[in-house]
Sequence to fold (307 residues):
Amino acid sequence: MTEELAVEQQAEGAGDFAMWQKMVGLAFLAQGTAGICQKGLAELQGEYRLFFLCCTYIVATFLSYLLFRARGAVLTKAGVLIGAISGMSCVLSVYFLLAALKAVSGVVVFSIVPATALSLTLLAGRVIFRERLSKSQLAGVLLALAGIVLVQL
Amino acid sequence: MLYVVLAVLFYVSTSVTQKTAAVRGLDAIGVNLALRASGTLLTIVLLATASEAWAQPHLGLAGGIGIVSGVATFVAGYTGLRALNFGSLNATWSVLRVATVLPVLASILVWGELRDVRGWQEIVTKLTGVLCLMAALVLLGRGKGREAEAGGKA
Fold:
């Protein structure tokens, strides 16, 4: 009986791992595709940043709304306020990233921006939320600094 | 380089506000909808004031890339959240951060960005820098994953 249970649990664990691989693989590809789209847009002759962002956000809003309805999610006043600030920052972040892609190479922009931003977010978390930095995070910040110097050389 | 700095600053601002939402225990799907809706509103207002934006030669192609980007952004967020139901936040976060390697590779292979680099030493230096930054993303994500798992946010 216990053997059967162990086999069942093992199969369940393997199923979970396979599902995780599928989901994380899709997320990886989708995230990368979004970056490639930004690079592709920067290569076009002309100025399309606002039009591109508008199309991107309309589609993402529509799909997010469908998910919101399907999951019966809740939206409070605080959620709207924080989401609105976050949304505007997000738009401006991509807007300037697209501008940077016109002036600096994609290798530099796509390497430096996420690593620097994540390092600064952790430092902001330490100041604002009084969080402690782990050893791996500290090593990550130092490695990011080294990487920025090397990419810039 | 000013644009890179501004992109980083607004990226940090987005992360900090999302962190604030998580700390306050707000519904992630609801906050995400507000984020997308406010972004749409802002871009529509900005687009309405920029008349030259409509007089560009490849508007259709740019719109198509924008739609693909919108779908990709949504799929990345949704599947990333679903992955958390089946695996550790730590591993999921690390894999997602490293997805930035795809546009880096595309820049080199599709748009031939390293072709203009003068010597092989410069190519090696730049690629070592990129590898350092990717490794940094994994380490930074690992710490973040552990911290969230400890707080039971997954």
In short: The two ends of chain B are 36 Å apart (CA to CA). The longest helix of chain B spans residues 120-150. Residues 147-154 of chain B have pLDDT under 50 and may be disordered.
